[in-house]
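Give me structure tokens for this 259-residue protein.
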Amino acid sequence: MADRDPRSEVFTTVAWDGAARLLAADLHFARLRRHAERLGISLPSDFEGLIFEALAGLDLPGEAIVGDDQAPHLIKVGISAGGQVSLTPRINVTYPAELSAITLAAPIWDAGVRGTKHGDWQPYFEAREAARAHGADISLLVENDCLVDGDRCMPMLLDADGVAYHPRPSEGALDSVTLEQIRTGIEAAGIPVRQARLTIPMVVRAAEMVVLGSGMGVQALATIDGRRIGKPRGRLHQAATASWLARLSSAWQSADDWK
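Here you go.
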């Protein structure tokens, strides 16, 4: 597939209850604004209302198959450079109790595009397919011997110093809406959350790793390229999961929140 213009679209993937509500819609809409500004895309003044209006006309893509630690459905919300809103629903997928990952080279875009959800997302789709082809659950993306992102998730590790570290958006990582929702809960459990360069030595010595995303929620990461990483499903996973479950029970929003 030919490369698309990154500045042709801005998008976000939002958890959907299958009816009229989106999870943390306010945070996703705020990120759409931030990323659109960086990409030079002018959003319709009432894009939030347009999204909820389009949501009302969607059919379910199928029966939900996930448990209560994940949202039942997902929607890719895209807004083109011309201001057209598009919604693409899909069923959420299940994950094993402990995930395996492979590493791939991270795609490189210019500074204005890096760290945004943009119109040239094909390398991320290809990374996802590469993981499947290698019998892994996800791909983690590496640049200059550092983890900077995941094919559909943000990696986070618990270091020996007791701090949970995640990649810096300034180095190509996305500003995770899932992390934004659960950071306070993780820190309330006694685990400070900080940005850092996730170097390979940090990853190798990590006490534990998790990955975060709107679809997967919080998942334990057990191996990277066949190498065992720490002890999965420990303190970080427990704290992050508890915070995520609280959000799943309380953070749904509908069109009424924008009237």
